[in-house]
Amino acid sequence: MKRPARPITAQYLQNAATFYLERYASTADRLRRVLNRRVRRAEIAGAPIMDGVQPAIEAIIARFVNAGMIDDKAFAQTKARALHRRGTSTKVTRQKLKLAGVDDDTLAQAIAGLDQELDTDPRQREWKAAIALARRRRLGPYRPEQDRKELRARDLAAMARAGFDYDLARKVIDATTVESLDET
């Protein structure tokens, strides 16, 4: 038998937000979406919903922001750094941060902070990310010699899907050895 839907109260929303933030790093916008999704599910299930649910959600988010549990700038910088280490292109990093609810100014600061932290220019950062992706996915020079020619188009396609431009992807995939990637 299905459990009846729980009524949406301020305490319920506070508990849901706390539980979510204990498990996941989040932006204010993402937490807002999570809480609104809970409200929509309750509406569909026919559960009672408190009056003024949107102002209550905004108040809860404001409390977490004031307490420092939600910091969009720190989230954006940490996420940008993690994505770069994984080999994510700047283009895809921007898209992922946008989807997470990071605003344009914070996004630009996070990308600029990444360049300062790595002490590189954007082209060099992109090059390092492309190498990291090739290493992680075993593309190009990270493949056995006999497979490289046959799988070159597939490797280039993987780099393109990851958001890297053709010239950069070609340079990484066509490198003869792993050591030659560090020299460029």
TrEMBL record:
Coiled coil: none annotated. Residues 71-110 form the RecX second three-helical domain. Keywords: Cytoplasm. It is found in: Cytoplasm. GO terms for cellular component: cytoplasm. GO terms for biological process: regulation of DNA repair. Pfam families: RecX_HTH2. Its main location: cytoplasm. Modulates RecA activity. Belongs to the RecX family. This is Regulatory protein RecX.
